[in-house]
Each structure stands twice: as structure tokens, then as C-alpha cells.
Amino acid sequence: MSEAAASVRRVTSTSSKRPDRSARPAFRCTECGWTAGKWVGRCGECQAWGSVVEDTGPGGGAPRTVATNPARSPARPIDQIDVETARSRPTGVDELDRVLGGGLVPGAVVLLAGEPGVGKSTLLLDVAARAARTGRKVLYVTGEESAAQVRLRAGRIHALDPQLLLTAETDLGTVLGHIEHVDPDLLVLDSIQTIASAQVEGTAGGVSQVREVATAVIQAAKSRDLPVVLIGHVTKDGSVAGPRTLEHLVDVVCQFEGERHSRLRMLRATKNRYGPTDEVGCFDLSESGIVGLPDPSGLFISQAMHAVPGTCLTVTLEGRRPLVVEVQSLVAPSAVPNPRRTTSGVDSSRLAMVLAVLQRRLGARLADQDVYVSTIGGARVVEPGADLALALAAVSSRENVPLPRGLVAIGEVGLAGEIRTVSGVGRRLAEAARLGFTRAIVPAGALDGATPPAGLTVLTAADLGEAVTAAGLVPELAAAAQR
């Protein structure tokens, strides 16, 4: 045998003895899908005990699924597809329809997530009752409460109707059986984290269970053109609990937000295949139920009959919706070496920046003063367009001079003291004029030659000095600087 042939034989022999890495057994976590080369008692990703099992599926090679079943319907040209079946149907709740883009689409799956006690179940129970009153058959599945508890809530909010069918189930197979038997026109599932399948390992709410429940419900919705609304839990940081694939599987993802001490609730769409994602729905939650607020600006304005120093109004944008919010400031001499900066509904770092600009660029003495800033009605002001209102409210309180009644201030404050323009100035001014305000201070060039709304006098300001002058606070501020 030649030396070259012997070398090839040795290489071939060595390669044949080399172990096939793809043939090694793999282990997978049933909760989060984490994989490992050997069995461990605790998952290295989600830290769950006893959730790692051997993955018996093939690791590669040819695909397991082949074309064996005939197609239910042949492929057709796209311009011949009937779009009437995809038209949205109004729910009867205008604020919800605003966020959804007109209503519920047949076969659409909507995920409504929010913190405990924010009013998710109350809202959907009201939606289910409204749909039932129009003659549609509605199936409400509750997995968190008993049927009697839901019945009590329905009686309190006047959501009783014979067409609204209620069942308390936590087994996925039983829920699918109810869908087959009832054949509803609307399904509400409260909540997806409480439903589990006996065919899948893991506890209810786990990654594998949530994925299985979502897949089964979505399949039933698409095959029956059944609109489905799922209630979902959230984690500590406010994101939807469960696998991220849940948000990819559903058609619409909505977040229901609100402070516990406030009656105001806001609904936002973070994903919407049938409408915009920049609309916001406002609701008022009370003991008698939840109602939409087509004009929520009145909740954020105090009812004081006379002008008070330290108050200024601004117009914020929640999505595409303008809201008038009142900012209140109290500036008082401090009794401690480090003055307090306390906020409620306002970003504390944003306030600190505005106060620093006021002191450095305008000469306002605030370093030895306690500053308290709050909004009315539990509103949260996080956008830069409220900076000018924060600055004018602080100066007004510091000088103990009230701002003129009927004045709104819109603009972002820069570190150099300039007033920067913000988006949607036209919509903000139109909302201010609709509510009866007569004067507005906006950044220079914000209108770009556009005509302001009728009855509203618009004053422009390029920096904080011009804004304070337009608000009528210059004499008192100059006197304070001289002192």
C-alpha cells in the first residue's frame, strides 16, 4: 500500500470514529425553551426547578411536515378577495373603538393587558353586554373568578343580558368544547394566564402553556371568523407576562393604564394590524362601572374661581389626542441645607433641569427654595412640550404673581434658555380654543405662517425672557433679582 493511500485511510478512520454532535441528546426547558447539552435540575434561564426534559424531536435534516392535506380553498388573485368580511364592527364603546381603529374585526384576536385592579374585566364585561344587547351571542370565560363573582359585578354595572353566556373554566379542552357547543359571535377569555392544557407540561401561565393556549384560541378564531378578546397579566415592569411570541401571534395588543388613586384610565394600542397605534382612549372608572370620556380635559383643570400664583396650563399630546393639563407649583423658603424638589405627575429630572435654566439664564433665585410641583387629576406629564408651563408656574409662585386667566403655555426649554418648538402645535391650539382659552404662548416659528384658531391670541417667544415678558411677570422678577 502506498504512503498516500495509507494517509487517506488513517484520515478516513479517524473521521469515522469522531462522534456525531448532532446525535447527542438535547434537553429543553418546558417553561422558557432554554436548551442544554445535558440534564440539569434547574433551568439556567428562568431558574425553574424540574422543568428541563429531554428534547426528543429531530435536530435537523429533512423537514417533518410535507404537503399531504389538500388546500381548503385555492389561491386567488388578490384583487378578487372579498374585504367585507374584514370590516370592523363597532363595540358600542366609542373610546375602545377609537383605539381599535373602528371596532372588532371578525377573526381578530385582541390582547388587553394591564395591572391588577385597573379595570380590564369591568371594561370587557361591559363590552360583552353591549354586544349581547345587539343580538349577538357572547361567551365570557373566566378563569380567575367564580361565575357568581362575575355575576355580582355584572349586576353592579348593569351588564346583564340573556345572550351573554358565562362559564368558569381553566382547562383549554373544556373551553374549546364550549366554543364548539355555543358557537358564539364574540369570545372573552379572562385571562389567558389562567388557562392550561392537559396535553402540555408545565403550570398555567408558563411559557409553554401560554403558547399552547394562544395557538389553540387563535386557530379557533381564524377558522370561525370569531373575534376574541384575551385579558393578559403584566410583569413588574409593565410588559405583558409570558413569552414574547404571544404579542406576535395576536393581532392587536392594548395596554390599560391608570393610577389606583385616580379614576382616570387610559387605553393605548402598542400593536394594531387594523388601525393606528397612536390613539388613546380615556375612561372613568367608578363603583357603577366604567364609561368613556370623550372630553377628559376637565379632569385635569382645577375648579378655582380666582387666579392663584403658581398655576399654569399646557396642552399635551397623548398619541394624537390633545389634553389640557394644569401644572401647579409651590416655591417656599427652605429650612434645610438641601432644598426639596418634590414632584407628582411630573418627571423630577425634567423639573430639576428647568429650575437650573431659570436660575442660570433668568436670574431667578431658586437654590435656597423648596419647590413642589404637581398636576391635577392624576395626569402624567412626560413630554418636553410642558417645560414652558413648568417654568412659568415656578416663576409665578416664586414672585407670588398669578398668571393671566385663559393662558396656556406650550414649548420645550433648552439648556441655553431658548424655547424650542414641539410637534402638533396646531392641534394643541385648536383644543385650547375649543375649551375657551384666549391666550397662548408658543415657540417662535411654531405656526410657520398658519392662521391661529379664532378667538385665540397667540404670542411667540424665542427664549425664557420673552416668555416671562409675554406672561406679565417681568417687573416682579426684575425686582427680585435686584434684591
Automatic annotation (TrEMBL):
One of its GO terms (biological process) is recombinational repair. GO terms for cellular component: cytosol. A motif (RadA KNRFG motif) lies at residues 271-275. The middle region has homology to RecA with ATPase motifs including the RadA KNRFG motif, while the C-terminus is homologous to Lon protease. Residues 1-16 have a biased composition (Low complexity). Residues 1-24, 55-76 are annotated as: Disordered. It comes from the Bacteria. SMART domains: AAA. Coiled coil: none annotated. The lineage of its organism: Bacteria, Bacillati, Actinomycetota, Actinomycetes, Micrococcales. Keywords: ATP-binding, DNA damage, DNA repair, DNA-binding, Hydrolase, Metal-binding, Nucleotide-binding, Stress response, Zinc, Zinc-finger. Residues 85-234 form the RecA family profile domain. The gene is radA. Residues 370-483 are annotated as: Lon-protease-like. Transmembrane segments: none annotated. It comes from Cellulomonas xylanilytica. DNA-dependent ATPase involved in processing of recombination intermediates, plays a role in repairing DNA breaks. Stimulates the branch migration of RecA-mediated strand transfer reactions, allowing the 3' invading strand to extend heteroduplex DNA faster. Binds ssDNA in the presence of ADP but not other nucleotides, has ATPase activity that is stimulated by ssDNA and various branched DNA structures, but inhibited by SSB. Does not have RecA's homology-searching function. Plays a role in repairing double-strand DNA breaks, probably involving stabilizing or processing branched DNA or blocked replication forks. GO terms for molecular function: ATP binding; ATP-dependent DNA damage sensor activity; damaged DNA binding; hydrolase activity; zinc ion binding. It holds the Pfam family Zn_ribbon_LapB. Belongs to the RecA family. RadA subfamily. This is DNA repair protein RadA. The keyword Cell wall biogenesis/degradation does not apply.
